[in-house]
Amino acid sequence: MNKGPDYYDPPALATHPNGDQFAGSETCRECHGEIYESHLETAHYNTSAMASSRNIKGDFREGSNRVELPEVDFVMQKKGSTVYQHTQNKEGIDQKEPDKVDIVIGSGVKGQSFLTWDNDRLFQLQVSYFPPTQTWINSPGYPPEILQRPILDGCLKCHVTFAKNKDFSGAGNRYEANQVLFGVDCERCHRPAAKHVSYHRKHPEIKSAMFMLKLDTLPRQQRLDVCAQCHSGPRDRLLQGNSFSFLSGETLDDYARNFYTGQPDAELDVHGNQYGLLASSLCFIKSENMDCSTCHSPHKNQRDKTDYFNQQCLSCHNSGTTSRGFREHITASITSNCIECHMPNIASKVMSVQLAGDSVATAVYVRTHLIGIYR
């Protein structure tokens, strides 16, 4: 391997507001290959990507590639590896230049939305894809007529590792396109890694991690904050910096908070506030150490791993720590799915989709993190 200057001091892909530089998760592969390969399969990593016909889930066949609104139709067409959204009148005539799909948002399990560049301005396209019905839909929150929605930091922050907005406050939708790091990857949780990579490539004999945050050494609240930056509501009340200023190991509430306070846990929505719901659960309240990683590994795709999540429940709720009645419940239900009863899928009050032919919006179901007795 030719180890030139760029190997020992890899070029920065982006620079955080505090001056730390991102090296890109590909550099992690060299020493952490197994974790890196596993992470590529997660929803976090696949929550955004540069668009191609390979990672867009929708059906492009004639008749299946349309969204029909009262006065306008949208048609999704593929040309080579590029996908375009056409805006047509009811006679099938394009009303404007087709919009190129530049960025895919969403792993494709619950849905996908699409972004397009207009020079350096970033917009959401009107058409999204809804996997539960395998159909194209009018994007959530869009009216039944043409709308161009600008993408601000508050929209983008939970789908990328970093994005540099030309307006530091994040209020505009003009970005440095070459400083958008897609997916939620290693450096979103472990902080920008250029110093770490450079040091260990120059000093391979040093085995202890230098210039790298070890999440398991943090106090519980700071461990929770790593996840809460995206899973505790919009946090659109900025106190300092912008939506990307917070780094793991800091105190999230010093940077951003939600406008509401003291909202009852029953009113917290299942979409986007998993932290608030978990923190209201007796399992969490009665535990000194429980955090998100008690049940979730950010390095692995654990979707639908029922047996694994059952075991996480039973690691605490076992025959040695529970009452006789509960032991009988566990014995009778040992082969069942704990989370189906105690963390069921619940209709979101803030996220819904308008399906073709339906007069009423269809709620999106999300698994609640308010652990309790529901049935």
Protein architecture, described:
The protein has helices at 5-8, 33-39, 153-156, 186-190, 194-202, 220-231, 274-279, 282-285, 306-314, 324-333, 338-342; strands at 14-15, 21-22, 48-50, 66-68, 73-79, 82-88, 99-100, 103-105, 113-118, 121-124, 127-130, 135-138, 149-150, 160-165, 175-182, 237-238, 256-257, 345-353, 362-367. It is α+β, with helices and mostly antiparallel strands and 375 residues long. Among the domains are: 45-147, no CATH class; 265-367, no CATH class. A 5-stranded antiparallel sheet has the order 3-8-9-10-13, with no helix packed on it. The chain has a 4-stranded antiparallel sheet with strand order 4-5-6-7, with no helix packed on it. A two-stranded antiparallel ribbon has the order 1-2. The mean pLDDT is 91.
